[in-house]
Design brief:
It is a single chain. The chain is an alpha+beta fold. It contains nine helices and eleven strands. The protein has one domain (2-236). It has helices spanning 2-5, 14-17, 44-48, 93-96, 139-167, 195-199, 203-212, 214-224, 227-236; strands at residues 9-11, 21-22, 36-38, 53-57, 63-68, 100-104, 111-116, 122-123, 128-129, 171-180, 183-193. The longest helix is centred in the middle third of the chain and has 29 residues, at 139-167. The protein is globular. Pfam families: SapC (PF07277).
Length: 240
């Protein structure tokens, strides 16, 4: 995920990066090998219209909600060979924030703004400045920081939903099977919410899930699973 997208992250500071600029790019080739990426709770509904929403355990053991974008590793079926994102399809905030990212400061005490120094468009000659003549954050940088902060806050808030799903033991392994050119393939390694276990919850628990806003996230997730078949269809009938 992030490891595959960000190659050379540095903490942004006015001393080292005063003259740094970001030149806009008009393609999304940087996302072409991103099979899935994390999403936050506020993205569940728009994401469900385009991507299957799955769950997986991160390296730290925490469960993360993911937007699935490809059936194979290092494949994003939403990005064409020319780097064009499929028209009308939702792009997760995780990808829209690139080349910026929130990282821990060197002392590991707080979250600060990081930047992939190897990203296309990062240079010292042309583009949007990160700092003004007073070495203060530019309006462009402030806008990027707000986007990052909003994303991080939403992602942190999503942990409440994930913790409740784990507490209720609603997660189960997700396995999808499909046939392509006479070969049957299985897709796994992710988790989903078990509808049977959901149906067995008592009324009090269901009411609590509804009032907390968690139930509608469950619905968005379950509806999104229908989008898996579309990924199969795209693989069988690739765009010309």
């Amino acid at each position: 995920m992030a490891q595959a997208l960000y190659a050379n992250v540095a903490v942004v500071n006015s001393k080292e990066h005063k003259d740094l600029k970001i030149k806009p790019i008009n393609h999304f080739r940087y996302a072409a090998k991103i099979q899935s990426c994390p999403i936050s709770d506020i993205e569940f509904f728009p994401c469900s219209l385009s991507h299957p929403i799955m769950f997986a355990k991160a390296e730290d053991g925490k469960i993360v909600p993911l937007a699935l974008m490809g059936l194979e590793r290092e494949t994003n079926q939403f990005v064409s060979s020319e780097g064009v994102w499929k028209e009308g399809e939702y792009m997760p905030a995780f990808l829209r924030r690139y080349p910026f990212i929130m990282v821990r400061d060197p002392e590991n005490t707080r979250m600060v703004v990081g930047l992939d120094m190897d990203a296309e468009g990062v240079n010292r000659d042309e583009g949007r400045e990160l700092f003004d003549e007073k070495s203060e954050a530019s309006e462009f940088a402030k806008s990027a920081m707000k986007f990052l902060t909003d994303f991080q806050e939403a992602f942190d808030r999503t942990q409440n939903f994930l913790a409740k799903m784990s507490e209720l033991e609603l997660f189960d392994d997700a396995v999808f099977n499909w046939e392509f050119k006479g070969v049957t393939s299985s897709f796994g390694g992710f988790m989903r919410i078990d509808e049977k276990k959901l149906d067995e919850l008592d009324d009090e628990t269901l009411l609590a899930l509804t009032r907390s806003g968690h139930y509608k996230l469950i619905v968005a997730h379950l509806v999104s699973l229908r989008r898996f078949q579309r990924l199969v269809d795209w693989k069988m009938r690739p765009a010309s």
